[in-house]
Amino acid sequence: MKPARRPSNPLFSSGPCAKRPGWSLDALDGALLGRSHRSKPGKAKLKEVIDLTRAVLAIPGDYRIGIVPASDTGAVEMALWNLLGARGVDMVAWESFGKEWVTDVTKQLRLSDVRTIQAAYGELPDLSQVDFSRDVVFTWNGTTSGVRVPDGDWIPADREGLSICDATSAAFAMDIPWSKIDVATWSWQKVLGGEAAHGMLVLSPRAVARLESFQPDRPLPKIFRLTTAGKEGGAKLIEGIFVGDTINTPSMLCVEDAIDGLRWSLSVGGLTQLIRRSEQNLRIVSEWVAASTWAGFLADNPATRSCTSICLRFTDPEVTALTPEAQADFAKKLAALLEKEEAAFDAGSYRDAPPGLRLWGGATVENEDMEAVLPWLDWAFATVKAETFGR
């Protein structure tokens, strides 16, 4: 039967993600609209985002934190274009976005010494293959596969190369050991439900040393440049980027929204509680999957299962017997029915991923809403299956 109760907030998109509970446009009343981002109050707003980010995530004081253009994509590519080439690089990928960074490095940067370590959707590569005498690029959490690294134990403290981490759907929902990370990136629109187009770039002292000692033999457009010529030759980090002097003009409306999300994070108990909220969403779905006759996790290994991008696959024998094209059509009908009933919006799997569903379980998604949506998944599946097989 059709469930009687809908989620209070049916927004389960994996990006842009749900706003924090209780959010309204009133949260943006303090936005510095019509003023220059380079004015004293404008810089203060941008600096507040940086300071709050450091406070919530407990980022070490000697790490730089910058606001950069073009969301997480821009932040990752700034790191790749500025830092890679000093030594060989291992590219670790197991879903769509990690594979995009492989493409960037092999086909755009065309570096000569690149090793690619990959795994299929739902799996994690053998991390013991990674050579940390080289630079290493990886995603902490695969947004389109629902697979994350279990911890940072596989990253040595005495590594020679840099560890460069795309943490866009992990930051604020997973425990990232900063001593193991030299570069981290993410976007505002993920775990805290901020607005898009702005990215965050975190650099360790080792990453800064690389920037100032290594000058790549390729042109860097202004929007990518992190260094300038030093007075005595060589390169010097543009420190302004890491105190709120952004490379280009940010949206002060988005900045205000980012501040609101960060303040909310502190109000609910900081990172510990953000992680708890997200992990509880995963536990709720895990209990449901354990009793389900038609759904399973795309990530088989519980130790590598994401608590933010919760990806589900079909296990029903009749559905899995369909052709891949028919399974994809089945998944689209299922997501469309959930949207029509206003039970779950944007719950379909990523276009390149195996057919199924994807529920965002980040900290802004209330546990009660995750509980409420699951009976709707059962009802929608039964409905689409009956239509598909003429029952």
Describe the structure.
This protein has 9 helices and 14 strands. Strand 2, helix 3 (96-108) and strand 3 form a beta-alpha-beta unit. Helices cover 34% and strands 15% of the residues. It folds into 2 domains: 27-266, Aspartate Aminotransferase, domain 2, CATH 3.40.640; 269-388, Aspartate Aminotransferase, domain 1. By secondary structure, it is an alpha/beta fold. The longest helix is centred in the last third of the chain and has 22 residues, at 270-291. The chain has a 7-stranded mixed β-sheet, with helices on both faces. Strands 12-13-14 form a 3-stranded antiparallel β-sheet. Helix 6 (270-291) runs parallel beside helix 9 (367-388).
Poorly predicted parts? none
Strand order of the largest sheet: 1-9-8-7-4-2-3
CATH homologous superfamily title of the largest domain: Type I PLP-dependent aspartate aminotransferase-like (Major domain)
The total beta strand count reads: 14
Please give the CATH class of the largest domain. Answer: Alpha Beta
Domains counted in the coordinates: how many?
A: 2
Question: What Rg, in angstroms, do the CA atoms define?
Answer: 22 Å
CATH topology type of the largest domain: Aspartate Aminotransferase, domain 2
Please bin the fraction of helical residues. 25-40%
Q: How is the main sheet built? A: 7 strands, mixed
The H/E string reads HEHEHEEEEEEEHEEHHEEHHEH
Reconstruct the topology from this structure:
Blueprint: H1 40-57, E1 64-69, H2 71-83, E2 89-93, H3 96-108, E3 114-118, E4 135-139, E5 141-142, E6 147-148, E7 163-166, E8 183-187, E9 198-203, H4 205-213, E10 227-229, E11 235-237, H5 252-267, H6 270-291, E12 295-297, E13 309-314, H7 317-320, H8 324-340, E14 356-360, H9 367-388
Parallel strand pairs: 2-3, 2-4, 4-7, 7-8
Antiparallel strand pairs: 1-9, 5-6, 8-9, 10-11, 12-13, 13-14
